[in-house]
Amino acid sequence: MEITKPGNSQEDYLALAYAHQQEVGGKYVPFLDILKEVLEDSITSDEAATRVSTFVFSHNDFLSIYSGVLSTIIGAAHQLSEQRDLSKLAGLVSALSRLPDDRNDSNKTLHLYLELESYDIAPQEVIEVDDGKIWCDLPCFHTELGDSMRGPTAYINDGIPEHIAEQQWTNLNTFAACLISNRADSPRSFDYLYTFAFRCITDSLEWDARTEQGMFSLYSLPAAMRWLCIAGQKVWENGTWCVAGPLWRGYCEGEEVEVEDGGNNGITLERWLWWAERLEELGESNMIDEEAKALAGSCAEMIREWAADDSGPREGNP
């Protein structure tokens, strides 16, 4: 199920991106042209990835262009609001990671610089920077995406209006969920993104929005439900640990719940099913809109179905 809320369509995003390029010299217009075709379904993600590689390595300062391409992709994930567009963007990232690794085809050692670090690439060596190969490891992508996913409260503190902060957090987590959903299509592991799935779930379900401490908690609820809709079963199968919020800790104490080695922070079957109860509770409250209420009920139902299909220990769980 897809959440449809006002935000940037692909047309809105591309108009803004092209306008920005006109202001700064237009270096990345060829990449935006490729991205436009991806979003319009004019080319496949693999065709697009090949063209992106050609664009990057047509420049002498290709590492700078590579970094700019990553920044543009993550910027697009920040702004695009429709799940289908973010899925296409994630598909492009996966396709980039499937490209053959580029080598130094010259007969001279390349002296490269990226993120204030220098790298020497001998003739015929694979280009490897920041402990990763271009393309299979997508060096710097992990760091840049993680740096951008600071959470809605941080965005609000930066002066972004609350409804836009919520939407941008939802957009980025939708993109991350799509990367996890498609992870079988990429040699690059995106498992570090599960951290954000559990952060969204615990922030939105384990804090009381009626208290001062939890007053911003529901800004993470749309993102949490996107995770559950897009990659919920993978989240269930890979959940091992996340910091517990006060509602779950209070529930454990009040019900005298036996917790496993992870303490209150372990993703146990009981905690997982309690999240379903919390979603239903929110769906019956007056704290979220009608669309979110319907989706909360659907997510609760899916949680119970996954748990019923596999009630044993998940990957990495005690």
In words, what does this structure look like?
- This protein is mainly alpha-helical and 318 residues long.
- The protein has two domains: 1-183, no CATH class; 190-318, no CATH class.
- 57% of the residues lie in helices and 4% in strands.
- It has 13 helices and four strands.
- It has helices spanning 10-24, 29-39, 45-56, 62-79, 83-97, 141-148, 152-157, 162-181, 194-205, 221-238, 246-255, 269-283, 290-309; strands at 110-114, 117-121, 128-129, 132-133.
- The protein has a two-stranded antiparallel ribbon with strand order 1-2. It has a two-stranded antiparallel ribbon with strand order 3-4.
- A hairpin with a 2-residue loop joins strand 3 (128-129) and strand 4.
The biggest beta sheet reads:
2 strands, antiparallel
Total of DSSP H or I helical runs spanning 4+ residues: 13
Give the helices and strands as they follow along the chain.
Answer: HHHHHEEEEHHHHHHHH
Number of domains: 2
Helix content, binned percent: 55-70%
Beta content:
under 5%
Shape: elongated
Terminal Cα span = 32 Å
Q: Using the CA coordinates, give the radius of gyration.
A: 21 Å
Number of strands: 4
The low-pLDDT segments are 1-6
Give, in spatial order, the strands making up the sheet with the most strands: 1-2
